[in-house]
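can u do me a favor
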């Protein structure tokens, strides 16, 4: 069998149903995979039960189906992957680059967004509850983003980040990195709100000996006041009984002009047109 050269994924967190902005990023990731004859997977990132909304996973999958975004293979659920995250965590601790942090919220607030490495050099595990951070020290991470261009991040400016939380839950950064590697993801297309997560994930990939996928960060749709449209700001859920006009709007955001040669009431015809357009015009 020929090796797949492209393996993409959409990885929603079930904190609410999808809104228009997340449809746009799902669509970009889907179209890019399909235009490259690639595979496209769905991974439900349910590593944060306190923030999970009941029924959200089901609602998200229903939206993908309704909008014609069919995925390959089985859905991956992060709640099935805890052993793999634990193992990665142990590896990193074994390498001496992950360390317990007991800093309180109040202490952290004193330093703004950047963690100053306060707990880096402790010699034994504390008795109290602790989070685990990755020591990124003086690493500089560079990568080419297919949409945003060349990126350079000084990890000292981002600060050591949390890979396991005080409440014993695994952090998003760790779970994503472990799963992208395990699933053999080659191309990541996601919202630009995650642009500064990428250097953190590349840093983890280096320490876990995982390959670095290609990245493309799609500009995120904003509300009229410029704030991010998100499940948290209660962006309206997508309507389900007439997806075609909304799909066309989402394609316009991605600069794909759906003209009247396309049967504009048929979701599959619209997508076929979009895949074709994407393959001849490239991404955005
Ligand atoms: N689960 C993350 C979110 O919904 C996205 C993860 C990713 O695409 O890397 O924001
Ligand atoms: Zn600390």
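np, heres the sequence
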């Amino acid at each position: 069998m020929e090796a797949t050269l492209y393996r993409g994924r959409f990885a929603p967190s079930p904190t609410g149903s999808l809104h228009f902005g997340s449809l746009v990023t799902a669509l970009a990731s889907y179209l890019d995979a399909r235009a490259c004859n690639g595979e496209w997977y769905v991974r439900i990132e349910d590593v944060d039960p306190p923030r999970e909304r009941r029924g959200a996973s089901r609602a998200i999958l229903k939206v993908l189906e309704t909008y014609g975004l069919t995925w390959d293979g089985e859905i991956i659920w992060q709640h099935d992957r805890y052993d793999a995250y634990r193992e990665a965590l142990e590896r990193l601790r074994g390498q001496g680059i992950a360390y317990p942090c007991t800093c309180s919220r109040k202490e952290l607030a004193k330093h703004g967004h950047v963690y100053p490495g306060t707990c880096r050099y402790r010699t034994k595990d504390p008795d109290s509850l602790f989070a685990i951070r990755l020591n990124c020290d003086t690493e500089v991470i560079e990568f080419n983003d297919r949409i945003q261009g060349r990126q350079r991040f000084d990890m000292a400016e981002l600060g050591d980040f949390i890979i396991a939380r005080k409440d014993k839950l695994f952090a998003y950064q760790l779970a994503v990195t472990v799963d992208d590697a395990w699933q053999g993801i080659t191309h990541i297309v996601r919202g630009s709100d995650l642009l500064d997560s990428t250097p953190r994930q590349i840093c983890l990939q280096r320490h876990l000996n995982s390959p670095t996928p290609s990245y493309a960060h799609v500009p995120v749709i904003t509300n009229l006041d410029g704030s991010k449209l998100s499940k948290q700001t209660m962006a309206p859920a997508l309507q389900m009984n007439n997806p075609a006009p909304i799909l066309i709007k989402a394609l316009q955001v991605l600069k794909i002009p759906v003209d009247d040669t396309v049967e504009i009431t048929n979701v599959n015809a619209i997508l076929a047109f979009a895949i074709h357009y994407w393959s001849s015009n490239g991404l955005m």
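The chain has one domain: 7-281. hope that helps!!
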